[in-house]
Amino acid sequence: MTTRSTRSPRRRTVVALAVVLAVVVVFVVRLVDIQVVNADEHVSDSLSMGIGVSRETYGTRGSIVDANGNTLAGSILQYDAQLDPKLVGPVERTGDDGEKQTVDWPTIAAEIGTITGQTAEEIQQIVADAVAENPDSRYARLATGLSTEQYRALAELKLPFLFQNPHPARSYPDGAVAGNLVGFVGSDGEPLAGLELAENECLTATKGSVTYEQGVDGTIIPGTETETPAVDGGTVTLTVDRDLQWYMQQLISEQTQNLGALHGQIMVADVATGEIKAAAEYPSVDPNDVDATAVEDRGSRIFRDRFEPGSTFKGLSASIAIDTGTATPTTIVNAAGRESFADGVRVTDSMSHGDTPYTLTGVLIDSSNVGISKISVQIPSQTRYDYLTAFGIGQGSAVGFPGEQHGELRTPDQWDPQTTYNIAFGQGVSTTLPELVGAYQTIANDGVKVPLKLVESCTHADGTVDATDAGAPTQVLKPETATQVQQMLENVLLQGSLAKSVAISGYRIAGKTGTGEIAENGSYKQGVYFTTLIGFAPADDPQYVVAVTLDQPTAVRSSSANAPAFQKAMTQVLKTFRVTPSTSEAVLLPKTG
User: Fold this and answer.
1) Residues 492, 245: Cα–Cα separation, whole Å
2) Residues 115, 356: Cα–Cα separation, whole Å
3) What angle do the packed helices 433-444 and 479-495 form, to 10 degrees?
4) Which of 14, 260, 321, 452 could form a disulfide with 554 if both were Cys (CB 3.0 to 4.6 A apart)?
5) Strand 338-340 to 346-348 pairing
């Protein structure tokens, strides 16, 4: 039998459960009302009390790397810091004793300044100026270009009114190595010179964005964030070898200064591929500190400057004579040190000598202006012009470097009688170093001209690779012609005055010097020259072309000034690329008949 005493606790339990259930039902109904029935209205209300924020995000500008993947230009993260004037004020912190304490704004400003390098007064003024301009301002730029260390130090202050955004910046880890090629960007990140400018389409990152709503206290409202991801720039791979480039820059810097020249350049190209393995010059520029270099030295003279090639052109003239059947390496031409021709034409050799029965090879060995011009004028001017343009003279290069110049080769209808003779030995015509290197690459490559290449490819962020198309090879000379000219140019360095200066033990070397006059105000400057030594090795299996130029050397004024740098440069090239030494002996050709 149930008693009143047993019924009472049960009744109380049922009543309690009913009350709890009723409360739960009320909360569930209210929750459904908030989150489902009137959700849009409540979200709208919350957003109306928040602040819409849109922030740019940055992809990383692509790297420029050498042929072996070494970074020549890359990106690092820097940070831009900003303050929210509406939130700026005292901050509560917990002291070492566990007690809360209030830190005033001037003290906080001083803490920030210790990190950013500003005074407390400067930081307070930044906020005051922002408010004066707009009382409702939520933005005051504190500092830009902060380092990662500064970013971390500021973050440790845990200030609710200080925000930091990452921002990519450019870095050149090897400084001036290939600086004249790589170029540089401005403080705003815009490319200004060199490959930074030429390859900007590949290197440029696509910006993204993040948008969200935040409360008046700076808290991001959940569910309001949307993001468009940034896309990183691509990687530009060059054909140059960083270590070789470094060596050549050291070498040309030393040689240019020792010889008292204004400028100097060394260029190295792969005979079979046309790839530029080094393009060094002095003065050079460090892209990390552009202002330390004079404006005129910040670009690349290798691509920008043109010069009269002088006797290096005799190698081209001899090639044309042989390829057209006008002469052979042993064809005899009688040449004195100075001769006069029809229409008042006069041609003079650099050294005085009597009538000499030179072979065409001997003309190159002794660098006889008279001899090469007497052979060349037997060939129609248009034919000579066509060959020279096929060699690339006056055509520029396939590199397309910013500011690149073309040599100046006038058409035959503009050749006066003197020019018709002079062009044979590189006077009355101008070229650029890439054009000249391209012409000698053609001779060394059995008559096949392969366009020069400085950029190998662009690898995009998604992994796709766009290889550089420099153009199709062209057959300029018959293979047998090229072989004969290779032998003649080897004899130039074997039997000429620079034989000992350029010799490299174990290797056969071919090449030609040039001492070009320098035009100024319609006439030639007296006593100063643009000197060149260009050649290839091994002469029995040409693999690399090396050219050294000096602008107005004063310690030695002839092209012999270039010999030490050429010998060292070629030696380093053969070592770098582990070229097998020659296994055969040179064929000595007669100098005179």
Assistant:
1) 28
2) 80
3) 110
4) 260
5) antiparallel
pLDDT score for 39: 55
- Domain spanning 242-576: which superfamily? DD-peptidase/beta-lactamase superfamily (3.40.710.10)
Contact 405, 433 (CB under 8 A): no
CATH of domain 73-173: 3.90.1310.10
- The angle, 0 to 180 degrees and rounded to 10, between the axes of the packed helices 148-155 and 105-116 is 160
Residues of the chain with CATH 3.90.1310.10: 73-173
Coil, helix or strand for 244?
helix
Q: What are phi and psi of 44, to 5 degrees?
A: -60, -40
- Cβ contacts of residue 351 below 8 Å, gap of 6+? 337, 366
Residue 126 dihedral angles phi and psi, to the nearest 5°: -60, -45
**Structure-token match 């901050």, residue found:** 91
Q: Residues 243-246: contacts with CB within 8 Å, 24+ apart?
A: 243/576, 244/268, 244/277, 244/278, 244/572, 244/573, 244/576, 245/66, 245/177, 245/178, 245/278, 245/279, 245/280, 246/174, 246/177
H or E stretch including 249?
helix 242-258
> pLDDT at position 561, please?
93
Residue 216: pLDDT band with limits 50, 70, 90: low
Beta strands 191-193 and 184-185, pairing class: antiparallel
Residue ranges, CATH 3.40.710.10, the chain: 242-576
Q: What distance in Å separates the CA atoms of residue 480 and residue 502, rounded to the nearest whole number?
A: 26
CB–CB of 62/236 below 8 Å?
yes
Strands 64-65 and 235-238: parallel
Rounded to two decimals, the pTM is: 0.82
3-state secondary structure 98-114: CCEEEECHHHHHHHHHH
